[in-house]
Design brief:
This protein has 4 helices and 2 strands. The protein has 124 residues and is mostly helical. Helix 1 (2-24) packs across helix 4 (95-119), helix 2 (34-57) crosses helix 3 and helix 3 (67-87) packs across helix 4 (95-119).
Length: 124
């Protein structure tokens, strides 16, 4: 139980760092500070979980799959960013195109960070 909480906390901080980095790169998303990035990461995680859960209830699985699953996951991530924009005062998303660009950037930076951490023996 404690290991799960520590992993979730580390993942939340890593996600916040990624959102903060993407926000500073002006890729469709801007974040006012690290506190807003942590809140954004938490809101995005919760909204993403709820959307994935609701889609699962409808029989739509967004798990690992081919190209179509990647496109659907990207669109869902962009929608989550746009929804999160409404709840977080320190975060601004520049329209759907900006949300798509930010979702791709967050995905790429997230993959790189996860890969680098795995080289150090840290698995999230």
């Amino acid at each position: 139980m404690l290991e799960t909480l520590v992993t979730a906390a580390v993942y939340l901080v890593v996600a916040a760092v990624i959102i903060f980095i993407v926000g500073k790169l002006n890729m469709g998303l801007s974040v006012s500070g690290f506190g807003a990035a942590i809140i954004a990461a938490l809101v995005i995680a919760v909204v993403g979980f709820v959307i994935t859960w609701l889609l699962g209830l409808l029989g739509i699985n967004l798990g690992a799959g081919g190209f179509l699953a990647a496109i659907v996951n990207l669109i869902v991530a962009a929608v989550i960013l746009m929804i999160s924009d409404r709840f977080i005062s320190g975060m601004k998303v520049n329209g759907f195109t900006g949300a798509l660009i930010a979702a791709v950037a967050i995905g790429v930076v997230g993959w790189l960070v996860t890969w680098l951490l795995s080289l150090l023996g840290i698995n999230l």
